[in-house]
């Protein structure tokens, strides 16, 4: 089974690209989606213990949590020590399920793949990228996003240029969905040796 790591900085088109892989029949483990599930389940009491008042009705309130950790490296580190092992365990269950099924290719959608040492867990890395002005426009269009929040997030992420250099494949997402779809198909063709 080939394990593809999909990554890219905020606003680069990673979620859309993950959907393009799914459209081609490739199972995707989405780390962000796993965090959402965990925040509504086993992670909630652990987060509440670290950051009292951030859980409501058994679910982590992401806005309240963000107010406590964004721009606070020490708090972010505490949160990551709880969340990363849970996400990794969720991912391992996904991989084991697909190994047993004999799935030829899977994608692990890992936002901070290089930053968290995720490179060792995958066979090849796909980086999604777009011009800086496109990235900024996409991110600032999100509800509740500000330039200050964007800069705090960027500060935690490896620069796009460095990610591109470390990648096995780069998908440019600034040109629309069809060129990105063709890039996904070409990567899969190469991996399958067709």
From TrEMBL:
Give the keywords, sorted.
ATP-binding, Coenzyme A biosynthesis, Cytoplasm, Kinase, Nucleotide-binding, Transferase
Subcellular location field: Cytoplasm
Say where the protein is mainly found.
cytoplasm
- Give the top-level enzyme category: transferase
GO MF annotations, alphabetized: dephospho-CoA kinase activity
Q: In which pathway does it act?
A: Cofactor biosynthesis; coenzyme A biosynthesis; CoA from (R)-pantothenate: step 5/5
Q: What is its EC number?
A: 2.7.1.24
Summary of the function given for this chain in its UniProt record: Catalyzes the phosphorylation of the 3'-hydroxyl group of dephosphocoenzyme A to form coenzyme A.
Q: What is the originating organism of this protein?
A: Chelativorans composti
Q: Name one Pfam family in it.
A: CoaE
Q: Where does ATP bind?
A: 11-16
Q: Which family does it belong to?
A: Belongs to the CoaE family.
Q: Write down what this protein is called.
A: Dephospho-CoA kinase
Q: PROSITE patterns in the record, alphabetically?
A: DPCK
The record's InterPro entries line, in alphabetical order, gives:
Depp_CoAkinase, P-loop_NTPase
For this protein, what reaction is catalysed? 3'-dephospho-CoA + ATP = ADP + CoA + H(+)
């Amino acid at each position: 089974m080939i394990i593809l790591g999909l990554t890219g900085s905020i606003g680069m088109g990673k979620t859309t690209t993950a959907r393009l892989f799914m459209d081609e029949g490739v199972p995707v483990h989405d780390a962000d989606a796993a965090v959402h599930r965990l925040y509504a389940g086993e992670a909630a009491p652990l987060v509440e213990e670290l950051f009292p008042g951030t859980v409501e009705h058994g679910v982590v309130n992401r806005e309240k949590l963000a107010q406590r950790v964004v721009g606070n490296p020490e708090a972010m580190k505490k949160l990551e020590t709880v969340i990363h092992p849970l996400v990794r365990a969720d991912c391992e269950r996904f991989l084991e399920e697909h190994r047993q099924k004999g799935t030829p290719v899977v994608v692990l959608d890992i936002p901070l793949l290089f930053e968290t040492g995720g490179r060792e867990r995958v066979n090849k890395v796909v980086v999604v990228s777009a011009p800086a002005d496109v990235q900024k426009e996409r991110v600032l269009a999100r509800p509740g996003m500000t330039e200050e929040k964007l800069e705090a997030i960027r500060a935690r992420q490896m620069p796009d240029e460095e990610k591109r250099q470390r990648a096995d494949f780069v998908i440019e997402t600034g040109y629309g969905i069809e060129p990105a779809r063709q890039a996904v198909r070409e990567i899969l063709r190469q991996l399958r040796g067709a």
